[in-house]
Amino acid sequence: MTGVINVYKEKGYTSHDVVAIMRKIAGTKKIGHTGTLDPDATGVLPICLGRATKLAEHLASADKTYIAEVILGIETNTGDISGEAISKKAVEYSTDAITKAVQSFHFDVCGVYMQIPPMYSAIKIGGKKLYELARKGDVIDRPARPVVIHDIKVLEFFPEKDAFTIEVKCSKGTYIRSLAVDIGQILGCGATMGELVRTRSGAFSINAAFKLDELRETAHLGRLSELVLLADELLPYPKIHISGAEMARALNGNPIPNSAVVLPTSIDNKYWVYGENGLIGLYVNDGTKLRVDVMMNEV
Fold first, then answer.
1. Among the options 17, 38, 141, 151, which is catalytic?
2. Is the Cβ–Cβ distance between 41 and 67 less than 8 Å?
3. Nearest residue to 168 via CA among 180, 153, 188
C-alpha cells in the first residue's frame, strides 16, 4: 500500500503514537507522518505509507492552518496551558488592542516573522533536542528562525476567561505556542496557548480527515485502500511519460536530458516522471537535465 491517509489526530495521542497505531492498522512497516502535533493538539496529521514515506519531507513543507486559543495574563514554561505557570498578571481586556497585536504578525504588516522556538520543542542545538534540555531545567538561547504568517485574524473573544481564538495560516516551522507568547508580550500581560487545532496541512483538510477508530473499522472491512491518496496527485507537478532508452536511464537513477522530453511549465521546476509500468519518481530540472529528487520505483 503506497500513498497518504489523512488522519484526524485526537487529543492525548503523540504523533509517534498515531504512527505506531497506523502501522498496525495498515499492516506496513514503512510509515511516517508529515509534521508533528503536540499531544494536546488535535487535527490534521497526514500519514505516509509505503514508498510515499520518501515524500514525507515534501508534504511537510506545505503551509498549515491552525485555530488556537490564546489565554492572557499567564505564561508557562512550555508556552501552552499544559505547562507550569511561571508568571501571572492582571489583564485589561481591550478587543481593539488585541486585534492590533494579532494583526502585527501578518506578513503584509511585518514581513518575515523572526520567531524564537520554544524550549519544549524537538529542535536540535548542539546535537541535543531542546525539550531534553528543558526537562532538566536548562534554558538556553535559541536563534530566531524566519517564518511567514500568510494570514491571521481573531475569530472570537471570551472576556469571561481573558481569552480569544485566532486562525493562523502560516509556513512550515511556525510554532503557534511561540506566537501566542509573543502576542502576550506585545499586550504587556503575557499569554499562553490553550486549545490548538490544525485544520489544514497543504492539500489535507480537517473536513476530510479520519479518526483512528474509523480507520480501524475500514481496515476490518478490507477497504482501507479506498482512503489512501496517491502522492503524485497531492503534489501538483506536471507529469512526463518516457519510454525506451530514457526509461532505462531513469530506472537506474540517471538524469534525463531536457532535449529528450517536452517540458511543460512547472512549479519549482519539478516533474513526476512515468515509465511504461507506472510512476518512476519525482524529478527536478536543473536547466539542462532532469535529475531524480525522490525515487518512487521499486526497481
1. 38
2. no
3. 153
Whether 151 is catalytic: no
Looking at domain 237-295, its CATH superfamily turns out to be PUA domain (2.30.130.10)
Beta strand pairing call for 204-205 and 191-201? antiparallel
**The dihedral sign for the CA sequence 144, 145, 150, 152:** negative
pTM of the model: 0.90
Q: Using one digit for the tens of pLDDT, what is the confidence trace for 212-225?
A: 999 999 999 999 99
Nine cell digits for residue 66: 491552525
Query: DSSP 3-state assignment of 53?
Result: helix
- Whether domain 64-199 has CATH 3.20.20.150: the reply is no
The pLDDT of residue 298: 63
Query: What per-residue string of b and e applies to 158-178 under the rule 16 or more CB within 10 Å gives b?
Result: eeeebbbbbbbbbbbbbbbbb
The contacts of residue 18 (CB under 8 Å, 6+ apart) are 7, 9, 33, 45, 47, 212
